[in-house]
Each structure stands twice: as structure tokens, then as C-alpha cells.
Amino acid sequence: xxxxxxxxxxxxxxxxxxxxxxxxxxxxxxxxxxxxxxxxxxxxxxxxxxxxxxxxxxxxxxxxxxxxxxxxxxxxxxxxxxxxxxxxxxxxxxxxxxxxxxxxxxxxxxxxxxxxxxxxxxxxxxxxxxxxxxxxxxxxxxxxxxxxxxxxxxxxxxxxxxxxxxxxxxxxxxxxxxxxxxxxxxxxxxxxxxxxxxxxxxxxxxxxxxxxxxxxxxxxxxxxxxxxxxxxxxxxxxxxxxxxxxxxxxxxxxxxxxxxxxxxxxxxxxxxxxxxxxxxxxxxxxxxxxxxxxxxxxxxxxxxxxxxxxxxxxxxxxxxxxxxxxxxxxxxxxxxxxxxxxxxxxxxxxxxxxxxxxxxxxxxxxxxxxxxxxxxxxxxxxxxxxxxxxxxxxxxxxxxxxxxxxxxxxxxxxxxxxxxxxxxxxxxxxxxxxxxxxxxxxxxxxxxxxxxxxxxxxxxxxxxxxxxxxxxxxxxxxxxxxxxxxxxxxxxxxxxxxxxxxxxxxxxxxxxxxxxxxxxxxxxxxxxxxxxxxxxxxxxxxxxxxxxxxxxxxxxxxxxxxxxxxxxxxxxxxxxxxxxxxxxxxxxxxxxxxxxxxxxxxxxxxxxxxxxxxxxxxxxxxxxxxxxxxxxxxxxxxxxxxxxxxxxxxxxxxxxxxxxxxxxxxxxxxxxxxxxxxxxxxxxxxxxxxxxxxx
Length: 695
Hints:
This protein is an alpha/beta fold. The chain is 39% helix and 21% strand. It has four domains: 1-128, Rossmann fold (3-Layer(aba) Sandwich), CATH 3.40.50; 290-462, 3-Layer(aba) Sandwich (Rossmann fold), CATH 3.40.50; 498-573, ATP-grasp fold, A domain (Dna Ligase, domain 1, 2-Layer Sandwich), CATH 3.30.1490; 580-693, 2-Layer Sandwich (D-amino Acid Aminotransferase, Chain A, domain 1), CATH 3.30.470.20. Helix 6 (189-196) runs parallel beside helix 7 (215-228) and helix 12 packs antiparallel against helix 13 (356-369).
């Protein structure tokens, strides 16, 4: 029922505008966009607004309105929504503020609002509203811009001002719908994505996210979008709170909320944009040109500097500009001026600039030569009033358009500086299904993201990701010391280095059961990360040095923190030097579920910052793909003559850790292994910490 009411909200036959000045502005915006349905103002103090007779209250309306714009105080808004729901109204934009953003009383009102709304499709509260550019409907409290060409991007934001700013941009993004969703007390981001997936005019969905209320539902609808071939582009800002249980581990600094969102987006095939400009340029490219079906890029410019900039940034982000084979180089040399250097990106040089009879064969030979999947032409157009030479630019652009259409691939014309393309040129390109891209780096970022999206889309079609694990409440974190953690893991069959626990008085005797050289560590509840406190000594060769190391260690820990000093020591045999050290951490997050972090391990783990996070459940293939993204992976492949690591053994070990985490004890909320020594055909846990929940 609510889904039907959401459709009524976006495609209303009649709209009730309730309030004073703000409702008056909203009526003006409905008129601005060309809304042709019935407008019913509700205001007991006015006789009319913009020539529309005012009703005293909502029960006086001719019938239950399809849509409502509500701009009255919070308490009155709740009562009005209740009355509208009883009447059978479709949906409402609750522009009213004073709800959960205003404290406890507001939170109580918001809960009441959600209860009384029943099946109404309510946007907000504390939001700007919705615009449907396709059928010319606006429930919006400020002047708005935006353009519709009959298809394009549906955009959802959690910031009202950002949504307004997007409508005012001069980037020619074709927009089908704009939603400012506010507090999301009833309708969430996921509801709008689900709705837009059913609209054939929507080619791509853009989402500005400050935080998600329901991560699992977002994952579900994002995967549905990927399977249907509708890209979702996310601009993530801010950060959500990571549970206090994470602060005791190294991984808290490696895998904060931003990394978790990265993991979520990667899993679900969501494109992440890192700036508002890249967000809009990516939406524009996907709306107009569509995603490339491969990674081979052909780049063109009539400037050596432009070609260099394209090549430099393309290399930085990993774009594939394939080189020409000898036969194609000879063909290009025969039709290019002598001063031209045949390369990709290609500077076709000024002697043939603006001569379509010369440039079109060049574009064609280059695109066909490398079997390009997408092509981009760099052109910065002259300013209006200084555009006597514009016809030369358009001649090359039109030659490029013909070539790209003939090749059947997506294409873009891009200005290096975002302002260097006039509206007429942008409209001309859009009418020919070429994306007018503004800003070189943003354009190349959009190409890279679109190429990656198509690859991920294809993988999801073949192997749909499993649903995220269910959430469960956490209690107070309780950290087991290294000895208890290792013992528990050893009993589960994990390879743990031999160790003995002893007080200082029996260290020499205990060491007699081990083989020198040894490592010595002080154990204690305040020594979770012992290196910082000087509570670790390595390479101890004999009993005398053991006694000396113990004395120095006690002095160091005492200096670090007297409360950390204990008389419990762990002795273990030193392991052989590994090929690489790895951090492996599996933990439970109250928002995202089970989370696996892999990183370059050892004492410099935070400094190096080489980490990757994936959400559970994950397949072995996904674990291998995650490992391959680490810089340390080069060591696994056999760096500088070393033997390569048997990845099957390493991945089986990681999968076993995940299994242990999921089955050993539901109270265990984190297992951190750092470092794990990785050898050619084996692995060995050197240090471990387990965290349990009090619940």
C-alpha cells in the first residue's frame, strides 16, 4: 500500500499545500516547474494563495489529496498527518522541523508521526521534499533549477541544501527526480532506490549518504540495482559511530566506518564518488553515454599538453590506454601530420584541427585499432563573445560523434577546465548521446568508475553476494590476554607458536622446556599492545640474557605506567623470518555485522596503512581478491627471487579463522591476529587477542 502511495506522491493529480509563507513558496515552485494538477492551499488565515482558494483545514478538501506539502509546527504536523492518513491521502513532504534533531521531545514527536502516518508515504520530517522532473511535479520550499531530457539520474540526498545546490549546478546533469529525505522517520533511502528501479526513465541512481539506518536493506536494493543494470553512485560524507569495543584493537584505526562503507559499496556494486563534482560527472556520464563494456580507452586531444595530462592522471587511477600495434601505427602515421606522435592518448595536432575530413579518419583508425570500449575527446571551448573559432571545435566534435556512434561505444567530450563548455555545445552533445564532461580529472574518474561498475555488475550476475549477517546486541567488551587467546585458538586447531606462562621467579626453569632464541612478553590487562610499553623482548639467546631482558622490561613498563606492571610473563620460541607479516582481524560490528580486515602486519601496521576490509559472509574468491589489493601481496607472488606463497593454504587459514569466529562462542566479538607469519607453504600465529562481549 505504501509503495502505491509513494507513486501517488511522485505523480499526483492534486497537491495540498499546508502552511503560510513556506507553503506559498512551494506553490510558486509547483507553478515554476509547470505542474498541471489541482492545487489546494490549506490556511485558516488566508482566503487565497496565488489565486487558489484556501481551505480552513484538511477535512474540508474535496477529496484525499495524492500529495501534501506540510510546513507547520511539529506538533500540528503530527496531528495533520494523522487526519490525512484517516482520509486516505497518498503521501506528504514534511518540511516541518523540530523533530529528533531537536532533542528528546522532538524524538518523541517523530515516533508519534511514524505511528499515525499508517500507510502514507511520508518524506522527512526536516527535509526539502521531492521533485519529479518527468511529470513536472515539485513539492519544494525554495527556488529550484535542474533539467530533464526525458531520462537520466534520480538523486537522493540526506542534506536539503545539497539537494538544492545540485539543482542549481551548471553541469547539465539530466535529472529525473530529486529527493531530500531528511530524518527518514518513515521512508528511507532504500525505499526511494527501490521505487526508482521501477521507473524506466531512470538510468542511474545517485545517493548522498551521511549514514544508513538499515545497512542490510541498502545492500539488498543495491544488489538488485546491479543485477538490473542500473548503477548506483554514492557520495558518502561524515562517519557513523563504531562501537566502543573496537577502541582496544589496532583495527579500530584501520577499519573505521569509512572503510566499512567502502566494503559495503564494493560488495554491492555501488560506485563511490569522493567529491560532489565527481558525483555529478559520474551520474552524467552514466545517464547519457552509459557504462563501457570493457576497459580499453581511446583518448584524443589537439594539444600535447592535454594528451600528457590525460595520460598522467589516467595512469594514476589505473585507466587502460592501450598502445597501438605496429600496423595501426603505420595507418595513423599515413593520415596524421608529420609532426604528430602516434600514441594513446593521441594528440592529432593543429594542422588538421577543425577539418572533419582529416580528423574523422584519425578517430576511426585509432578507435578501431585498439578495439576501444570507450572514447574521450578533450576540447576546451572559447568563451561566448570570443568564439569566432568555435566552428572548428564543433567540426572535430561532430567527426568524433559520428565515429563513436559507428563504433557503438560510449563517448564523452571533456573540457579540462569545468567552465569551458557553453550550454549550446553541451545540449548538442547530449542530443547525440555523448556526455559533455566538465573537468579532466572528474571525467577520467567517471570513466574509471563506470568501467569498474560494469565489471562488478557482470560478476554479481554470475555470483550474487549472500545477504549480510543478522545484527545482534553487544555488551561490554572483555579482552582476553594473549596467553588465554592463544590457548583458545590452539584448541581450535590454529597454528600457534609454542609458549609457556611463568612468573619472574621461574623464568629460567620454564625456558628449559623451550629452544633458544626466545621472545619474552609481560602479560597484563593494561598491556594489550605491549610494544608501546616496552613489554616485548626478542632474540634472547641464553639464560643470562633472559634475566637481563626481564629486568629491563620491568623498568620500561614501570616508566610507561606503574599500573601496567605485573609478574606474569609469556615465553615463546622465536619463529623463522617469514616471507611477509599479516594482520588478520575478524570482528562483529553492530551496524555492518561480521567484518574481516586484512592488512600488512607487525608493529608498523597503523603507519603503513595497507589494509582492506570486506563484509561477511565472503567466498574464498572474494578473500583472494581482497588480498590482491594489499601492497604486501607482491611479496606473496614471489618478490625479488623469493618463492611465492601458496595462496590456497593462506586463504584456507583465513577462512578457518572466520569459521572459528562464527562457531566457537557467540560471546566472542573480535579475534585479532597480529602478526601472522606467512611462509611458502604454512602460516604461524605470533600474537593474538580475543575480545568477548559481556552479553
